[in-house]
Amino acid sequence: MPMLTRRTLLKTTAGAAAALAAPGILRAQTNQLVIGCAASHTNWMEAIVVPHMRDAIGAEVIFEGTRSAVNLEKMVANRGRQYLSVIQMDDPVMLQAVDEGLLERLTPEMVPSLSELRDGAIHLDGMWANYAQPWSGIAYNTDMLDGVDSWEALWAPEAEGRVIIPSLQNTEGMWTLFVAAMLATGKPFEEAQYEIDAAFDKLADLRGNLLSVYTQMPQAFNLLEQGEISMIPGNFSSFALPRRDAGSPVDLAAPSEGIFVMPSGVCLVDGAPNRDLAAAYINELLSAEVQSEIADFTSSLATNTLSTGGADLPSGTSVYSPDWQFVAQNRREWTERFDQLMAI
Amino acid sequence: MTATRADRIGLLVLPGLAYLGLIYALPLFLLLLKSFRDATGAFSVAEFVQIFGDPLQRSIMARTLRVAFLVTLLALVIAWPTAIVMRRAKGGWLSLFLVAMILPMSLGVVVKAFAWSILFRTNGFINQAMMALGLTDAPVRLLFTETALVIGAANVFLPFMVLPIYAVLQQQDPNLPDAAATLGAGPYQRFFKVILPLALPGVVAGCAFVFSMAVSMYVIPSLIIGERQQTVAMQIARSFLFLRNEQLGSSLSTILLLIAVSVVLGSSWLAARLGARQ
Questions:
Q1: Nearest by CB to B228, which of A73, A212, A219?
Q2: Nearest Cα residue to B125 out of B243, B222, B133
C-alpha cells in the first residue's frame, strides 16, 4: 500500500487548490455580468435584455431573480467583495441601499442615457434611475369575474377564500395597504397614505377572504390562472398582461379609486465587478431602444423620452405614487404588524 | 510499527474534520454567540425572553413541532409496509422499488410543490375522488393547509424513513419469524416480539432523520402553506433576509438547532439502548 508522503500531500493539495481556483480565474477573465432582479423579470430579461447585451456591449448576462429585500441583503453580505454588478429593484429598497452606502452614483459621463430620461426618473442625484415602469391594479380570472370596478371587490362576501394578497415584504404589497387606508378613511390618497392604523383595521376585515399571502408572486399567479382564486391585488402590467396576451384567462383591472406605478429602478453596485461593463449595461437598459422593447413586451411606461410604444395608462382613473421615504422609515414595523395580523 | 501506521492512517480523518469544523461547526458557533448578544455586542438573553414571551412566536414553534411530528408519523406509517415489501422483494422488483425510492429525490421540490398544488386544488384529483366516493358533498379546502404540508413533506422525506428501516430488516435472519412460530408464537407475537424489536434501531434512525429535516424545512412550507402559517425556519429567513434582525434570526436558529440536536442525541441514545437489549 503506497505511503502518504509529505511530497504527495503537497502535490495533491496544490492540484486541488488549482482545480478549485480555476473556475474563478476563468470567470474573472470573461465579460460576465451578474444582475440582481425580481423573479417576475425573467421573461423579458431572457427575451430582450440578455440577447441585446450580448450583441451591443459583448456582455454575458447572468441574472438572479428574487425579492428586492433579498438583493439588498446580498449586497450587505458581500460588502467590499461584491459579485453582483447591477441591481434592478424597487425605490423603497434603493433608499435603504443608499443609506447603507452600497451604491455608486450614476453620472451622464458613464451613463449617457440618463440625459434622455423624463423628470423624476433619476433619484438622489443619480444614485439610481427608473427604467420602464409597469402599472399596478387587480389581476383577476376572466372565467370567474367580468371585471373589477372597485378595490372594494376584495372585501366582498363572494370573494371569500378567493383572494391572495402580496406580503408587505414585497413592494406591491403596499398598494393593498394604501387602498385599505383610502377605503377606510374616505380621504384622498395623498392624505390617506399616512392613516396606517385605519389601513390595518380595514385589512383585518379582509382576512376571511384570503386564501393566502404571498412573497413569491409567480406561484400565486399560477393559482389565479388555474381558477383556484379570483383576484390578486397589486399585480402589475408587466406580468399580468403578457400572460393575458398568451391566452391565459386573466386580465388586469384598473379600479375606479386609482392605480399605482411600480417604482422599478436600476443601480450600480459600489465595487461592482466589471464596473465599466456594468455602467454600459445600465446605459443600454435606459436607452430608448431597449426601453421601447421592454415597454412593449411588458405593457409598461417607458422613462426614456425618446422611447416609442409601450402601454398607455388606463384612462378614467388616478395614478398614485406614495411617499417612499415614509414607507422606507416604517416598512419594517408595518411588516411585523401585517404578519401578526395575517397569521393563522 | 503497526501502531505508527495506524496513527498515520488516522491522519486521513483530518481533512474531513477540518472541513466540518470550518464549514459547519465554526459558523454554528458564531451563530450561537450572536444569539446571546444584543445590538451593542453585550451578553444578553433578551431575545430569547422576547421570543418565548411572544404568543405568535410560541404558536409558530408549536406548529413547527406539530408538523414535524405528523410528518414523521405519516412517513413511518407509509415506510414500514414499504420496507417489509422491499425486504421480501428480489431481483428486478427490488431494483424497481429502490429506483422508485431514490429517483423522486432528483426532482426539485419546487416542481413537486407545483404538482401538489394541482392535486390539492378545489377541483383537483383529491377533492374529485373524495366527492366521487361520497366522503364529502363539497370540495374541501386543502391548499395552504397544514394537512397539505404534512402530506407533501412526508412525500419528500419518505426515502429517509424507508431506507434505514429496510437496511435493518435486510440484516435480520429471515428464518427468525418461522423459528418463533415453531415455538408457538402467533402472528401478533411474531411481529411485536421478534420483527419490530429487531427493526427498532432502523425505525429510530429513520424517525430522527425525518424529524430533523421536517422541523427545519424551509422551501416546502414556503411553497405549500404560504406566509400566513409561518414555521420557525421561515421566521429565520424572514429575520435575516427581510427584517435584517440578526439577533432574532440567530436566536431562532439556536432554538431550532437545540431541537434538532436533542432529537439526534435522544434517538442515538435510544438506538444504543435498543441495540444493547438485543
A1: A212
A2: B133
